Amino acid sequence: MNRPLLARHLDGLGTTIFAEMSALARTTGAINLGQGFPDTDGPTEVIEAAVAAMRDGANQYPPGDGIPDLRLAVAEHRQRFYDQTFDPDGEVLITTGATEAIAAALLALLEPGDEVIALEPFYDSYAACIAMAGARRVGVTLRPPHFRPDLDELRAAVTERTRVIMLNTPHNPTGTVLTRAELEAIAAVAIEHDLIVVTDEVYEHLVYTGEHIPISTLPGMRERTVTISSAGKTFSFTGWKIGWVCAPRELIAAVRTTKQFLTYTSGAPFQPAIAHALRLPDTYFDGLREDLRHKRDLLGGGLRAAGLTVYEPQGTYFTTTDITPLGYADGLDFCRRLPELRGVVAIPEVVFFDNEEVGRPLVRFAFCKRVEVLEEAVSRLKRLEP
Ligand code: PMP
Ligand code: GLN
Hints:
Largest sheet: 7 strands, mixed
Domain Aminotransferase class I/classII large: 30-380
Cofactor: pyridoxal 5'-phosphate
CATH superfamily of the largest domain: Type I PLP-dependent aspartate aminotransferase-like (Major domain)
Number of helices: 14
CATH topology of the largest domain: Aspartate Aminotransferase, domain 2
Number of strands: 13
Number of domains: 2
Order of helices and strands: HEHHEHEHEHEHEEHEHHHEEHEEHEH
Family: Belongs to the class-I pyridoxal-phosphate-dependent aminotransferase family.
Structural class: alpha/beta
CATH class of the largest domain: Alpha Beta
InterPro entries: Aminotransferase_I/II_large, Kynurenine-oxoglutarate_AT, PyrdxlP-dep_Trfase, PyrdxlP-dep_Trfase_major, PyrdxlP-dep_Trfase_small
GO molecular function, one term: kynurenine-oxoglutarate transaminase activity
Bound molecules: 4'-deoxy-4'-aminopyridoxal-5'-phosphate, glutamine
């Protein structure tokens, strides 16, 4: 065959950095602070609800939109936390994790040649799905030390071809939580140019500084926003892959069109269990956040003591660092060597950047791990020199 097997518009997608680094953790036995998944399970009562559902026969295809009780629980959750009303019949769609929601939304909304403005570093699936849609990403770079979006850069990025602004707040990997003023400025751009905002809010409950404000709650935004979230991070069940989309009926109809042909439906016994989880009392959500705040501080202190520049995240369960003070310059090379050098796995952020100069020295560590694991990791990282 004289043509590469992988379609040309997918060039460069290769293997995800999370897969590469988790495989490295397995083969070297290193502590995995790379891929973001907790090393403890979510609430036992939620597991029991999934087991009960399986025993009660929730083992065949659920409805394509998701089971009615989970759609209702998602709508109740929006009302409870954001005072926002979504009709569970037609304005809520259950997906196979946020990953499928992102893919379904972008594949539904974009035409070849369209442009998507997104905060850079980009979570890897945004770049992949934009490429699969034949569209083009245009980054607005979040730069150290504060990783705030430059709103003039964002305004200047809009062209005739712009169709979507893709947001992520709290932002993976920088931990930036967009402020009301930033969101208002972004909303004004979206309204002025009649753009759709797709917003990934999977870390909505993991905010330590500031407040999570869904952009869909701002005036004029509900009708043009596709909000995506997931049970993975909020309930520590990343392997269950239950996500959801909230949006007005016409946008849900568009996303449903592609979603039907990606997985159609999934997670039969997990859907009722996540409905139960979404109805847990506020103490659950507060407890999760406070536990992770403590872990953020523990890891941040340890990384600082190891000599790295630490950028304290406002949200998510990731800490971004700069390895330059240790005498290293290239995060990718550093992360490939770190398991051998120190028995720890981390994620090089350069892979999430088009603007590689900015991303090259940045390395992300996950702190969603048991305290003793974080303590062991930071003790291994001490006296780290080239
Ligand atoms: N978006 C972001 C920003 C993420 O960090 C992740 C990983 N949880 C996802 C989407 C994917 O979520 P899910 O596991 O629910 O597919
Ligand atoms: N969201 C997880 C992270 O940022 C990774 C999920 C995945 O492997 N695709 O670490």
